[in-house]
User: Fold these one by one.
Assistant:
Number 1:
Amino acid sequence: MTNLTEVKELTHFIGGKRINGKSGRFSEVFNPATGEVIAKVPLASKEEVKEAVNHAKAAFPAWRNLTVAKRAEVVINFRGLLVKNKDKIIELICTESGKTEEDALGEITRGLESVDLAINAPHLMKGEYSVNVGGQINAYSAKYPLGVVTAISPFNFPLMVPLAQTSMAVAVGNAVILKASERVPMTSLYISELWIEAGLPDGIWTVVNGDKVAVDELLENPAVQAVSFVGSTPVARYIYETGAKYGKRVVALGGGKNNMVVMPDADLEQVAHAFISAGYGAASQRCMAISTLMPVGQETADRLVTILKEKIDNLKVGPHTENPDYGPVISQQAKKNILKAIDRSVEEGATLVCDGRNQDITTNTKGFFLAPTLLDHVKPGMEIYEEEVFGPVRNIVRTDSLEEAIQLINEHELGNGVTIFTNDGLAARKLTSEIDVGMVGVNVPIPIPVGFHNFAGFKGSRFGEGHMFGPDQARFFTKTKVVSERWIHPSEENAMSFAFPSN
């Protein structure tokens, strides 16, 4: 065990400033590319979380009462600071998550889409007004912020997901508490300072670092009104059920087994490039990564496997300083679990097209690197097919028809994303119409929507009715009040009526 006194001690961010942890409990933060401990992050106690919630609760009324245009102005300032400091943010993302610089820049760009949408909060908070709905009564609706809300974010996107979960929440007038992943806390702490520099009042933005102790307090604390979560399906289910038990509004996004269906008429060179980039980018640690390739027809599969093998074997894996195609996975334990998943797949009958287990980068580095693996002849029921493997192990499930591919995808418990490669409009229309997943692509590698469209899957990929990204964020983080008003003229008759009101 590394001596924790030799590494940097991180903090929480509460009440507009960095606050040292008081619990005495810490977790190690690694540089995945070197395997070295680079920091220790405090794990908050229940009392520390309560203190953070109280700060947020006290700050909320003044922020709520500020005009929505003034709040949007702060968000605009924040956006400018993100762009101005993008090189520092790239450095932090690469250091604590192991991403390549190109991927980190892409994460910033997509994160800015959520900030851009939040700048439109004045438009998204508009209500409706109806004149003379009956008896000289006017009716209108108005949106109000909820109060203290929380976001619980994953390790795989240190910036993009927290921005997607929180930007709109701040803009519409809430006080936000981010429980960042304890594996990648440095990026969240850094952008906390940018929020303050942008003019956000103390207490409106909070970062609490912690584990299940902190999460449970956020779920149980009566002052917390809403919870946004992104992570694995088992934890998403727990977050949803526990938060709902305590009367909170919850959206919890879980795992995704995303499929790429390949029709016989598709350009297989194009498909290969799309699959490799979407499947192996970021060491396959994306909830929207393509996990399973589903070629239709044995000839299509055979041709595609031949093309893929050469390209995958030539992928460059390494630290971000060497400009690789992808970097390490997040931890040594994750690496061990992925290697075990490959072993089990072979035992269950899958065929190895590319075997990353014994490559030099996998076996002879201190970093958490894994060379790419591709498995063919994977069948439903195999563990690698049923479960999401967060690492560079992708699989091929051969199908005889588009109908079979649709059926297999619809029968899976997860329904996050799917994409189809074809030049046949009828095939594309059939899949988009009949598939039971939340995000669908046609001839695109990753079917992730742009920031002004809603993002979420179906089935075990999402619990609750909210979304990440998109206009639904404004709805999720506000409550709508409907007012019916009548101003009585002195000359009007004033008689009792026991009939139910109607127009």
Note: Residues 46-65 form the longest helix (20 residues).
Number 2:
Amino acid sequence: MLSGGAGTRLRPITHTSAKQLVPVANKPVLFYCLEAVRDAGITDIGIIVGDTVREIEAAVGDGSDMGISVTYIPQAAPLGLAHCVLIARDFLGADPFVMYLGDNFLIGGINALVADFCAERPDAQILLTKVADPSQFGVAELGADGTVARLVEKPANPRSDLALVGVYMFGPRVHDAVRAIQPSGRGELEITDAIQWLIDAGARVTPHFVTGYWKDTGRLEDMLDCNRLVLESLEPGLHGTVDEASTLVGRVVVEEGASICRSTIRGPAIVGRNTKIIDSYVGPFTSIYHSCSIERTEIEHSIVLEHSTIRGVARIEDSLIGKEVEVVPSSALPRAHRLMLGDHSKVSIA
């Protein structure tokens, strides 16, 4: 499970937080990944960690709460996905394994992928999906017989619209591949180069096509889209308090210790534990994490991280707001705001 990486596309949030721990429907993205691996019957998990190691360790611990056993594998610098396989050699031994990027969101889990791999036993199995802009991904080209013929990392002129999804399965032969390849022009050991080495060496590399929902949650738009999708499947639950002057409409979860006063929550939405919503409107597709305070505010289609305060703001939409952020009004308020705020920010909105 890869949980290093700088998360540059989610800055400033990721200046101080691990991108894999940004919550979707009030649960970190990394947890969805770990649960997918566990549900496929894999419970011995090595997590590659970088500068955010302490935050990842604090969130996941030894994995026992999730029914898994976690080993942390430090990566001194982000030197590529194949480098992650290289440094995990002692942990992996000669066993087949899943490599899962901890910021990828894949609805439906990986049970079918694992079953296919166990039945077929190729040297590598990759997930592919059609994308609108393949130049942003590793791209696969298939031969006439449907097998993987060529892989290119972020090509300027893609010859295929099949992008690699961030979940891979490998047999032990991949260890020869990651030792044989050289760093790319980016200075990284590319997993696409390692898989291409396997293909050129006559190894069997099979594709598995993803027909359901998949997102690389590296951008604000992707985070909000994943949040929307998960919230749509929420089962309503009232575990906090809602006064008589408040209204809950549709799929709404109010977690333990949360309080709703003189407010309307229109689902799908989730209000985290010990959060207070006062004289406010929380619209559809909104996740508010724990210990927040929302007062005299309208907010919709947004994610708010823990310990943040929003007070007296007429309208917030399509926003990701970091930890311990304070958003308060100045002398004049516009009708709507679009915000992406880093941790510990303080903003006065004109």
Note: The chain has two domains: 2-230, 234-349.
Number 3:
Amino acid sequence: MDVQVVAKALHEAETEVLVLTVFEDELKQLDYLSVLDEQLGGRLARIIESGEIQGKYREFTILHVDGIGAKRLLIMGLGRRKDFSLDRIRSIAANSARYARRINVREMAIHDFSHLSVDPKDCAAALVEGVILGMYRFDKYKSKKKNAEKLLQKIKIVAGSEDAVPALEKSAHTGKTLADTTNFVRDLVNEPGNYMTPIIFAEQATEVANKHGMEIKVLGPDELKAEGMGLHLAVAQGSAEPPRLVIMKYEGNPGGKTIGIVGKGITFDTGGYDLKPSQAMLRMYGDMAGAAATLGALKAIAMEKLPVNVVALMPLAENMVSSNAYRPSDILTSMAGKTVEMMNTDAEGRLVMADSLTYIQKYYNPDVLIDIATLTGAVIIALGRTVSGVLTNDDDLYNRLYNAGEYTGERVWRLPLYEEFRSQLVSDVADIESVGGRSAGTITAAIFLKEFVDADRPWAHIDIAGTSMMEEEIARYVKNPYLPKEGGTGTGTRLLYHFAESFANS
């Protein structure tokens, strides 16, 4: 996707489609379109007066025009002014791009929202993100692909002045980086289990690290055993695919504070001996979405050269059934030395995460620690498919994650982490049970992870089980045009990037 910023009057912008926006409660306050409408002989005003254009959110009207630089106008409704947000810019851009693709248009332009006092550094990034994310398709394994030459190939952002161009160009560059890395994450998540094993994921991470100048270390079964990572190894032992632990380090602020991130990487999850029902197993190649988002965020951070330090761990394994697989009621020993009674082999994510949390603290001692995982189905019951759960011991971390979520549209909401939930994990035969029962499942999963985090270390757990994958029946009510109808969403990538950026700016 070619992205350009041009400083021109709207009627002078040469393009196949020029996207304009209107509010439903401000249809007669369109000063920014007045010069353009003069060139059209008042055509816009007449159509608005007739009621054909009402400005309702995502309503669109297409006009073929002559006498200006654009061949067509696409007028998109923004809804009511009080509901306007940065995310609506993303959504309108995505809708516009999808419409352009449908009519085989290869180029479109859109105004910079300067008449709405949108900060240029926010505006262009949101526009570009919306277009590129909205155009995403995963058709790698289709023998007949869409004709790429007929797809949208260029977007122009029409700046209100020359002075705005540098900020818009910088913002557009960041937006393209974040959209491209999010789509990279979507590709990783959408790969089926036979094409995305722990070894293949580690190879992808190595390629990213080498290309962008990051340190990387990959541990195999022998190294995991030497470190005493009994939980990680237990999850992997039922599979013919050997486990891996990917460790990547980005240094953008030598001597400064370090952010630690751990992302769950179960490349396929059968549930083990606590076998999932067949329908629930269909999308379980996406159980590595936390690791994928971690890798994508780190890639974006390196590409944008953020002045922060980040160390990221991605524990990788398959959770399979075989004569070697771990069993319910097994007692396992973690890297931290704590023994864990296995209450359900389908609660494997917290096991690989626990050992990685111990490892990252022992060897890297991060100042703040984040983990991200498709951890519990319970979070879907609590928060649905549009909001990820956050549990944390630190208010500042939550505020940073919340603000990053509101900014990116990857929204999060906090659940309690009260100490009394720990009683649900009391074991009669080990230090802790792996599962605390059906009640408060997301909370007790986080309480389990908290057992492996130093008491005085700022830490937050992000559960993306409800937001990492989209299915067609879910898409019908979510109706987010920059999310795919099916498959990986890339959730967590832009969230973690902007979380890291908040440290760079503090």
Note: DSSP finds 16 helices and 20 strands in the chain.
